[in-house]
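Lab manual, section 2.4: Encoding a predicted structure.

Procedure: take the sequence of the chain (251 residues), apply the prediction step described in section 2.3, and record the output as C-alpha cells. A sample record is shown.
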Amino acid sequence: MTQSFFTSGHSPVVVVTGGSSGIGLAASKRFFAAGCRIAICGRDHARLVAACNQIPQHVPIRHRPIEETLLSFTCDIGDETQVARFVREVEQRWETVDILVNNAAVAPLAPVMQTSVQDFRNVVAINLAGPWHLVQAVWPGMAQRQRGVIVNVSSLAAIDPFRGFSLYGASKAWLETWTKALATEGADVGIRVVGVRPGAVETPLLRSLFPDFPGDQCVTADEVADVLVGLAMTEEHPSGSIITVAQTEHG
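Recorded output:
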C-alpha cells in the first residue's frame, strides 16, 4: 500500500522515543526538516527541552508556530499508563500518529554473572515492554486509517553480541524477530514495519560504555538517521526489512 502522508497538505506526525539524544535526536531533526510534526519522549525533562531547542535549527521558517509542529513529553516507556497517555495526547492534538520510531533503549555492560536482577528488569522494561506498549497504543489508529509505519531501532549486537552485552544483544534479537512478525500482521491493515540495525554509533551512550572505542570504526547518528528516515518515508524496502548501518572494513 502506498503511503500518502504528504497528500492534501497532510504533514506526517512522527513519534520518536528516546528523542532527546543520539539517533533519536538526529532522526527527529531530519523528519522535522522534511515537513513532519514531531513528538519526542524521554525520561529527562531538561534533555527534552534542550532537544526541542535544537530540532528546528537550520530549518527554513515555517508558516506554523513551533508549538504546532514540535512537542515533547516526559515519559517512561516502561510504564504502560504513561505511554498510553503520551500517545493519547499526541492523537488528541494532531488526530493521528503516522510514524512511530521505537528508539529508546538501555544497554547494561557486564558479564553474565555480574549482571544484576535490576539490570535484567530494566532491559525488559525499556527494550522489550517499551516498544510493545508503544505499538499497542498506536496500532489501532493506524489500522483504522489503513496507514502507518513503525521503525524499530535494533543493533548489530542482535546478530553479533560481544562479551558483556548479552542482555542488550538478546533484547535486540527479540526486537528484530518481533519486527518481522508485526510486518506480517500489518500487511492486512496498511501498516509497514521495518528495522534499522546500527553498528557502533558515535553517541554519548557509546562513549559512556566504551570511551576508548576507535572513532574510525563508528558511524554517526546522522548516517543512521538518514537510513531510518528513508525507511519510514519511502517504500524502497518492503515491510519486514531490517537494514544494517555499520562502518565497513574499508571505512
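Check your result against the sample. DSSP finds seven helices and nine strands in the chain.
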